[in-house]
Amino acid sequence: MTDSRLAVVVLAAGQGTRMKSQTPKVLHGLAGIPLIGHVLATARALDPAHLVTVVRHERDRVAATVLECDGACTIVDQDEVPGTGRAAEAALDALPNDFEGDVLVVSGDVPLLDADTLTRLIAEHRTQGASATVLSAVLDDATGYGRVVRDAAGALDRIVEQKDATEAERALTEVNSGTYVFSVPALRESLALVSTDNAQQEKYLTDVIGLMRSAGRPVAALPVREGWLVAGVNDRVQLSDAALRLNAMIVRGWQLAGVTISDPASVWIDRTVTLDEDVEVLPGTQLKGATSIARGAVVGPDTTLTDCEVGRDARVSRTDGTLAVIGERASVGPFAYLRPGTVIGDDGKVGTFVETKNSTLGRGAKVPHLSYVGDTTVGEGTNIGAGTITANYDGVNKHRTEVGAHARTGSHNVFVAPVRIGDGAYTGAGTVVRKDVPAGALAVNVAPQRNVDRWVAVNRPGTAAADAAAAARESVDDPDTA
Description:
The chain is an alpha/beta fold. Helices cover about 20% and strands about 30% of the residues. It has three domains: about 230 residues, Spore Coat Polysaccharide Biosynthesis Protein SpsA, Chain A, CATH 3.90.550.10; about 210 residues, UDP N-Acetylglucosamine Acyltransferase, domain 1 (3 Solenoid); about 30 residues, no CATH class. The protein has ten helices and 40 strands. The strands form eight sheets. It has a nine-stranded parallel β-sheet, with no helix packed on it. Helix 6 crosses helix 7. The longest helix is centred in the middle third of the chain and has 21 residues. The termini are far apart.
């Protein structure tokens, strides 16, 4: 049920210069979702009455992604005054005037923080009757983080940013995660007193803690059990660290749900993928986007599927596929390339070094070897011979090829679209099909073979081929030698 006393604010206004990227930091992908998408999903899981995201850098791009991830989120623009304190002020102004509950502030670049941890933080805040509760962590290396400073009794005293910290304060290992719960009335009052008198000349949200403490308001800090939960992503190294940890959790989750993954370290699965029980994922496999795999299917090794659907008991080996549908008991690969619009029917086959695009193969249809099938419909039970090409492009427009049911086409065919090969038709090896083939007919290109005797001896004298040919002729001409 919706928590009517809770608002969540996601801070996503920063530039993220350490990423060294033209893409805003919070839009970098992690397990198939932008960083901020993970944060928004966690925030929404808390069922807050209000969800607000504060944006500034690359405002339109970030706002558009936020609304794609959560269409009910309120977008708030931060003005030219820098700092998390100013961002929080802008977010508070977007809340209803009569809202006096609690506001949870989270960072858009902390993707692994989970709803259970935040639920405990909110519960601790309310149980203690605090004006502010900080989520902290104890790290072996606290470099870059604001330090949590406690008094002699162990109570939270203040938070100091690293650039403003003394040597003694920098030696502290308990850090501020950038995640807080505030009582809204107390936060409004304290933010009005925050200045920009610091090394960065920013309005720090962390200064609120010291101001509340000085005013006699209760403040607290709750350490998390695992420091990685609150790890921010500020550069590509931290992004890969987060990806590695999250993927390990995703893979383990699928293993516990009944999926066989023999080499977890080499398998990557996006959060958006769905797998049934008794699926087997072999080493070197990446499953991305909205890919779904049905019971009994075996995928891999060395396979990448993006937004693909794999049917029950299918086999997909050493294949790259995007926006493709693979039917039940179908066989794909090795070394197949399924481009968007490929649909392989039940019991179908796309074999070694076959590329397909915008094509449908009927039940039991097979393209076993060394072929390109584009903009084509292949009927049930048809076999396409090795080395076949559908010539679908005339230099201006794409055209379709239609091959009927139970047809048998020869090796090294070229189907020049638009063309139709009827049900039960055959084509001879090496045939270029330019005209429709009626049902049950045989299409062949007849060209008599001509042998030019002694061509090698005349045109390639002195070569190994000429010597071999001469020796062969001598053995035929001299029966005693043969």
